[in-house]
Amino acid sequence: MDNNQYAQTGRRMFIITWILLFGLLFIFFYYHGQSDKGRVESHPGKVIIKADAQGHYRIDGAIDGQPVHFIIDTGATLLAIPEKVARELNLSGRYPIRMQTAKGTVEGSLTRVNKLSFGNFTLYDVKAVIILGAEDDMLLMGMNVLSHFSLTQTNKTLVIKKSDEQ
Residue 100 pairs with which residues in a beta bridge? Predict the structure, then answer.
């Protein structure tokens, strides 16, 4: 092969590489954008949530009328609110508490939320814990909230219905 043939082969490889790169980027962003569409459906008496790419069930809601983001956590005893979000919601803790979590021991402060809503559901006077030092935006919807509902999980889909005992 002479230098001209090497240059021609190099140009072809360069073009093929860029085409593949753009193709992969297109596929990534196309499916990434699709992942949140239709993830949550609200119906009278029930909410259907599809798991995200990490397998978590997330839903938007509100505390005292202010928008928040929940992650469903059946391993959490209480509604857990990061300190950053608690400040934004003007919530203050009343009683200090230490808790064991998957990440170890954390400090918190017990409080109450006047009104919690998600989907078509609303709960009042909900016990919660403010997680001191937590600066993320995601609230953990624990079992003190979830126990008011029946939960069914099938094929990466969680159905939350009004409990028959209410």
Answer: 105
Pairing of strands 149-154, 95-101: unpaired
Q: Quick one: 51 and 28 in the same domain? A: no
AA identity, residue 113: V
Per-residue pLDDT reduced to its tens digit, 119-136: 999 999 999 999 998 888
Angle in degrees, CA 59, 106, 151, rounded to 5: 30
Q: What is the mean pLDDT of residues 45-71?
A: 94
Same domain flag for 84 and 30:
no
Same domain for 67 and 29:
no
Q: Are residues 108 and 142 in the same domain?
A: yes
**pTM for this entry:** 0.74
The burial of 29, by beta-carbon neighbours within 10 Å (0-12 exposed, 13-18 middle, 19 or more buried), is given as exposed
Distances (CA, A) of 65 to 13, 55, 114, 116, 122: 57, 28, 10, 8, 11
Q: Which domain holds residue 94?
A: 40-162
Burial 123-155 (b: 16+ CB within 10 A, else e): eeebebbbbeebeeebbbbbebbbeebeeeeee
Number of domains in the chain: 2
